[in-house]
Each structure stands twice: as C-alpha cells, then as structure tokens.
Amino acid sequence: MTKSEKQEYLQTGEVDHVSPGRDDMRATEFLTRDLDYFRLENKYKDLFFKIRLKNSVDEKVLLPKNESLRFEFATYNEKPVVLHGNKIVQQLDFNNGWPSDDLNMPNTKFNSSSTIKYKSGKSLPETIAVNLHARKDGSQHVSEYLPSAVDQDGIDDGPAAQILFLFNDDTLTARIVSMTADGGLGVV
C-alpha cells in the first residue's frame, strides 16, 4: 500500500485489503477515532447466539443473514465496556458455551484487557482485534486494530468465516462474512 493510499485508508476507516487465511495476525493498523457504538453485522448465515451479560441472564438472539445488531460503548470504572440495554456485554457466544467461536468484549470475565478479542477454536490463541481506551469524558477511543479475524473451521459449524472490523463515523462494525474455497472473501 502506498503512503497516499494508506492516508486515504486511515481517513475513511474502510478496509480495502485483508489477508484471509491467517490466524496469527497481530494489530497492524493505527487509527485515532472516537467511538459510541459497536455493531455486529451478519453477511454470513443466520446466526443463533447468546449475548452473555454481566450480572444478568444471557440473552438468546437469532440474527438473520443481512441483519445487524447495535450495542453502545461506555466507560465503567474508567475502562471501556460494551452495553446492551444498560447491561455490560461480556461475550457474544456463537457456539452455545463451547470454548470457541466467541467474540470477547473488553474488561469482562472473558477478557480482562481493554480489547475486543475473537476466539476461533478451543486450542487456538485469541485474535486481538481492537485496542480501546476510555477517555476522561467517558468516550471510547481506538488506537490500533486488526482489519480482520479468520475462523478457518467456520462459526458454529458454518463455512470458513472472516470478521472484518470496519469504522464509520462513531461506529465500530464487526462484519461476519464467509470465505470462498480459495481463501478469498464471499459477500462483503
């Protein structure tokens, strides 16, 4: 990517390149952006999952393909958290409690750091997708992120998948897409 392409990329916050097929990627892009919302966008397949909430009953959700669900960022004890209603989201569990296919939210029992992490498989390490920082005024700020996380064996028995992390104004979107047999992206 040329210097001018990178500047345009950082200004728009849109992903114009990804490296499919790698589970060992680390944060490679740096971005300064204030965030108010986290959105899960499903371009993959109908997904049945649990929203694991702190000090509350888990919420079961069916998110049809081509639909999305919006959450809010907030600050709790001077650390960034994700809210659903007024409850802290600990995890989006796409595999009914098994230790894989989990999007772990920041500063929870599943993830003690100020990051959003994806766990694709039981024996695989988590992919740190986004580093967040809480500001004194309560807003969330992202400093670095990984454009995508890969799940080679698919999410909840689906085809190989990739979660693209995209920024648009005050929203961080995690877009779930399928990968083609050659490692490319399906519908983006």
UniProtKB/TrEMBL annotation:
It comes from Limoniibacter endophyticus. This is Uncharacterized protein. The lineage of its organism: Bacteria, Pseudomonadati, Pseudomonadota, Alphaproteobacteria, Hyphomicrobiales.
